[in-house]
Automatic annotation (TrEMBL):
It is an enzyme of class 4 (lyase). The lineage of its organism: Bacteria, Bacillati, Actinomycetota, Actinomycetes, Bifidobacteriales. GO terms for cellular component: cytoplasm. This is homocysteine desulfhydrase. InterPro entries: Cys/Met-Metab_PyrdxlP-dep_enz, OAc-hSer/O-AcSer_sulfhydrylase, PyrdxlP-dep_Trfase, PyrdxlP-dep_Trfase_major, PyrdxlP-dep_Trfase_small.
Length: 392
């Protein structure tokens, strides 16, 4: 037995055969070359950003409306490690991302479909802007999943996703993946950690090698395993990998049905007097419609959000009277879920950040499941009547 001379698995914190099967499937679905399974979507995002910035700190460019825990990571956690985020408020304009890039920028980060406002941007144009400056485009494709959108076909370099949501689909697992497209050239000055020679990667003459020496085409996964999983933990459990694999088998059927249900709910909600703006990217009235029509030929999935015209007590009355929807902070489940965004999924955001993220106090997020659309509509109808004291 000699270090680095044999292929295989030796300790499940850094690699496991059951996890590897699902990693390979995720890489194949995305059209990437390699994937690392981790313990949650947040682990995937955090480890990727830390690996890109390790050894040199720097900044990240990101839109101002993203998932709550990611916002907290970028705004509250990473700055103490010397990694700042520059937030773009004109989020669909590629030029505004490019203007913020400088020599210390490690990544442009976007959500392919954003949570909770269901925004979608011109990924091809944002990629071009990032690449002009030698910066990789890192995307969070949790909501669309590779079934609805394959970001590597639009130039993205790394996909970090939560497998907790539509990828597994049953709300019974927490997991995440980091998938590399392969082929991005990481500059040595900007990404010193990927070029650092380490004894752990030694060759047969005991000479240290760097991640780029080992896997020049896709070096990021190497230190994520060897440094982050090995040193911090956060690996995907083999049993969770097995559950994710079971969920993946039905991803097409689930997302088609959830998309069809979302479309019907959007049509119903737009005609309801109890709802203001409805956000759904492929809807004809969405400002993101044209980009969505190009990037999402199969539809936008099951996530939508709406401005509820009642107060907090009325929302509580609505939720209390629902029989088909469950009140949960999750999304991408086979069950339809509803939640009040500023109090749950985006509880981290103070009023100033809610405003920057275009999240009004009365924003309600819905994630459609596999029930009949008629039952979902009847459930909401019944809930609105209870909330607004209208007799049935
Ligand atoms: C849920 C979510 C995450 C975090 O995933 P976890 O598996 O819960 O850690 C990241 N990004 C988006 C868009 C999400 O919806």
């Amino acid at each position: 037995m000699r270090t680095g001379q044999e292929r295989g698995f030796y300790y499940s914190r850094v690699g496991n055969p059951t996890v590897a099967v699902v990693e390979q499937r995720l890489a194949a679905l995305d059209g990437g070359v390699a994937a690392v399974g981790v313990s949650s979507g947040m682990t995937a995002i955090a480890y990727t950003l830390l690996a890109l910035a390790k050894g040199s700190k720097g900044n990240i460019i990101a839109p101002s409306s993203i998932y709550g825990a990611t916002e907290e990571l970028l705004n509250g956690f990473l700055p103490d490690y010397g990694i700042e985020t520059r937030f773009v408020t004109d989020r669909s304009n590629p030029e505004t991302y490019e203007e913020l890039i400088d020599d210390e920028t490690k990544a442009v980060y976007i959500e392919c479909i954003s949570n909770p406002n269901v925004e979608i941007y011109d990924i091809d144009a944002i990629t071009e802007a990032a690449h002009r400056h030698g910066v990789p485009l890192l995307v969070d494709n949790t909501i669309a999943t590779p079934y609805l959108l394959r970001p590597f076909e639009h130039g993205a370099d790394i996909n970090v996703c939560s497998a907790t949501k539509a990828i597994s689909g049953h709300g019974n697992v927490i997991g995440g993946f980091i998938v590399e497209k392969g082929g991005f050239s990481y500059d040595e000055r900007k990404f010193p950690f990927l070029h650092r020679k380490q004894y752990i990667f030694r060759d047969e003459n005991n000479q240290g090698r760097s991640p780029v020496d080992l896997f020049p085409y896709a070096p990021l996964g190497v230190p994520i395993r060897a440094s982050f999983l090995a040193g911090l933990g956060g690996q995907l459990s083999p049993f969770d990998a097995y559950l994710i694999q079971n969920g993946l088998d039905t991803i097409a059927e689930r997302l088609d049905k959830e998309t069809a249900n979302a479309r019907k709910l959007v049509a119903y909600l737009k005609g309801s007097g109890h709802v203001g703006k409805v956000n759904y990217a492929t809807d004809a009235d969405s400002p993101f419609h044209d980009v969505a029509a190009r990037l999402l030929p199969l539809g936008a999935g099951g996530l939508l959000s709406l401005e509820f015209k009642g107060d907090a007590d009325q929302f509580a009355a609505l939720v209390a009277s629902l029989n088909v929807f469950s009140y949960h902070t999750d999304i991408g489940d086979v069950r339809s879920l509803i939640t009040n965004v500023p109090d749950t999924s985006h509880v981290e955001l103070d009023p100033k950040h809610l405003e920057k993220a275009s999240i009004p106090r009365n924003l309600v997020r819905i994630s459609t499941g596999l029930e009949r659309a008629e039952d979902l509509i009847a459930d909401l109808e019944h809930g609105f009547k209870a909330a607004f004291n209208e007799n049935e």
